[in-house]
Design brief:
Calcium-transporting ATPase, cytoplasmic domain N; single chain; Rossmann fold; 10 strands; three-stranded parallel beta sheet; elongated; 253 residues; alpha/beta; five-stranded antiparallel beta sheet; 9 helices
Length: 253
């Protein structure tokens, strides 16, 4: 076998015994203008109904064989989707797999928005499409093909075990390849935002009250805040803000 090369978003090809052999999915058949025979089409339909993708072995003139393959859905993926939806976050699937397979997997996971049969160079366009709808998009990916979409998204999240290109393109990197860590990102970011608001209100409220007192606004009524007491209260205010921020460590993710 020689002259092996990848066909972006379609499959691979190589020369064998003087003939070019191709391996790929439905996009490959479109490129070669090949159509499966009736019995092979029936095989494909049955495989897609079981969330299995079909890979074809072909020449330029005909289809030699069809092979059904499937990825097992990890239990963590189901838990992650359920938890994100519970947090009010819409989950969408963006994949290059065939639509029947993508929809079968999405149905099992409870995902309603599916972008299937998307070529690698078009993934970032789907992200832009969601952004034009007024949505803030967080993209999770690990492959070379995901890099443009990770860059386009408002927040790019790369799997730590993914490709270097994906990691360089993302703003956040998951150390473990665990989908539940995506949920932890959202929970931690929301908790951090709440702490920021709390500390802002505390600091603003303190200054709104303490500064006029130190300036002698209520001196006529015998209420006056001495500089020494003001300095102590300022230090206390700083300590309260710091302690409140440290409480983030106790949040259960």
């Amino acid at each position: 076998m020689s002259k092996f090369s990848a066909l972006k978003g379609r499959g691979v090809q190589a020369d064998f015994n003087g003939q070019t052999i191709y391996i790929g999915g439905p996009r490959l058949l479109e490129m070669l203008a090949l159509a499966p025979a009736d019995n092979m089409a029936s095989f494909t339909e049955k495989a897609n109904a079981k969330s299995q993708s079909v890979v074809y072995l072909t020449t330029q003139e005909s289809i030699i064989a069809a092979i059904a393959v499937a990825d097992v859905i990890r239990p963590e993926s189901q838990s992650a989707v359920d938890e994100l939806q519970r947090l009010g976050i819409e989950v969408a699937m963006l994949t290059g797999d065939s639509r029947p397979v993508a929809e079968a997997v999405a149905k099992e996971l409870g995902i309603t928005r599916v972008f299937a049969e998307v070529l690698p160079e078009h993934k970032d366009q789907k992200v832009a499409e969601l952004q034009r709808l007024g949505k803030r998009v967080a993209m999770v990916g690990d492959g070379v093909n995901d890099a443009p979409a990770l860059t386009r998204a408002d927040v790019g999240i790369a799997i730590g075990g993914g490709t270097d290109v994906a990691i360089e393109s993302a703003g956040l990197i998951l150390v473990n390849s665990n989908p539940l860590d995506v949920v932890k990102i959202f929970k931690l970011s929301r908790a951090s935002y709440r702490k920021m608001i709390q500390n802002l209100w505390w600091a603003a409220g303190y200054n709104v009250i303490a500064i006029p007192l130190a300036a002698g606004v209520l001196a006529g009524w015998g209420i006056l805040l001495s500089p020494a007491v003001g300095a102590v209260l300022m230090s206390v205010s700083t300590i309260v803000v710091a302690i409140n921020a440290q409480l983030l460590r106790r949040i259960s993710l």
